[in-house]
């Protein structure tokens, strides 16, 4: 049984670095911006990284009337982070600090 752990600042930094490694400078900057906002929101909402958390994040962006391209970029960045975490054997729902 795993316990959901909310990302800390140091974990968030590591996750962003993991997700953006090997990307072009512009993509890295854009993904880092969106991931930092998402992970900051997760911390404020006391939410672990999960499908329901990502759906709630998408809803927040829609409610704030962000452009579809901005929402898609944010979701792409989150997807890249989760893929990288899983490729290293990390369960996104049990992020450790």
Features:
97 residues, mainly alpha, 4 helices, 0% strand, disordered N terminus
How would you portray this structure in words?
There is one protein chain. The two termini are 18 Å apart. The protein contains four helices and no strands. The protein has helices at residues 9-20, 25-44, 51-63, 68-87. The longest helix is centred in the middle third of the chain and has 20 residues, at 25-44. It is an all-alpha fold and 97 residues long.
Strand fraction band? Answer: under 5%
**Low-confidence runs:** 1-6
Shape: globular
Compute the separation of the termini in Å: 18 Å
Order of helices and strands: HHHH
Q: Helix/strand-derived class?
A: mainly alpha
Count of DSSP-assigned helices: 4
Mean pLDDT: 85
Rg, Cα atoms, Å: 13 Å
Strand elements, count: 0
Helix content: 55-70%
Major β-sheet profile: none
């Amino acid at each position: 049984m795993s316990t959901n752990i909310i990302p800390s600042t140091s974990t968030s930094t590591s996750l962003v670095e993991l997700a953006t490694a090997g990307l072009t400078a512009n993509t890295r900057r854009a993904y880092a911006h969106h991931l930092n906002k998402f992970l900051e929101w997760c911390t404020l909402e006391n939410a672990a990284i999960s499908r329901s958390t990502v759906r709630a994040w998408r809803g927040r962006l829609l409610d704030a009337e962000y452009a579809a391209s901005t929402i898609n970029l944010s979701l792409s960045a989150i997807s890249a982070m989760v893929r990288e975490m899983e490729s290293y054997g990390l369960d996104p729902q049990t992020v450790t600090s």
